[in-house]
Model the fold of this input.
Amino acid sequence: MRTFHRLVLALVLLIPHVSQAAAPPAPPRTSSGELQGARWRLDVPAGWNGELVMLAHGYEPVGVPQPSPMPANDSTASLLAAGYAVAQSAYASQGWAVSDAIVDMERLRAHAVSELKDVRRTWILGFSMGGAVAIATLERLPRHYAGGVSLCGANLPGEQLANDLLTTLVAFDYFFPEAKGLPRQGLASAEAAALPQMELYQGIAAALQTRPAVAAQLAVRLQVSVEALPGTISLHAMILHELATRAGGMPVGNVTTVYRGFGDDKAFNAGVQRLAPAAPAQRYVREKLALTGALKRPLVIQFNNNDPSIVPRMQAVYPQLAEHAGATPLPRVLPAVGEGHCGFADSQVVEALKAAAAPFRVADRISGRAYPW
Done:
């Protein structure tokens, strides 16, 4: 009998193991549409974890073609693979559309929650300008969110951002007056706003090449590399002019500003162009684009190394605001990763969201809930 058993066992071991190929994962369910002029999409993975990510995209220049149907953000696939449903709005307007985007995202959130039915938690995650959208949403609508993430975010109150942009433009005009191909009235003028963006960029780049030592000094003050300087200046001009159009006039001024860090500061302050704000436009940025620091939900902030758009002086603003406002909890700032503007790997986006959710993971494990991490 034992001999028979040994023979059977030998035969079993000799039979090649035939494994069944794992079935490919089911594709996510996608729906899309339009809500009061804002195109949207909602993607839900087959293994949905019950949580919803509202994904806020960054700055999109006015006039850039918008494909239809709305494409998914590059980070969507990794968030879906981690189990999240992802809702995205194209916003009803282009440009520095923070105020519109807050409304559009809230409208989409309500729609997504009604479509999904059983949403356990909702998060907001934004890139670049979308980082400001995410933070402003958490400040104004905390009851709808468990927390949020701002990645490579322009996390500044609107008036402070506009002041920073204006500083860039008047500094360029001071050091490079009457640059060839650029209006004599300066980069903050209506004449500059009328120039095509590439023409503006080329004029700035050509002027910087005429005085390389001065360009290097300006780059140090603006906290960007010399190579990135033309792009940074032209981007600042584009955003400030778009803000002025949206707000109905120049939203900030520098009549009483005392500048520092431009070499001979006495000469700079004496010679720099002075502009007064348009009062209604100034009210717009103060009210519609306000950030106070008064957080009541977890927020994770992360930047990239050598970001020419969101430079170190900008990165420090919101954590200081939150500390001054007594935010509970204070934002958690993760170490910088990647290079350039919004240079995140897909896995890093998911990890930042996990960091925001860390307190909830502990609570879920204590309560015995199954959590996908």
Observations:
- The two ends are 50 Å apart (CA to CA).
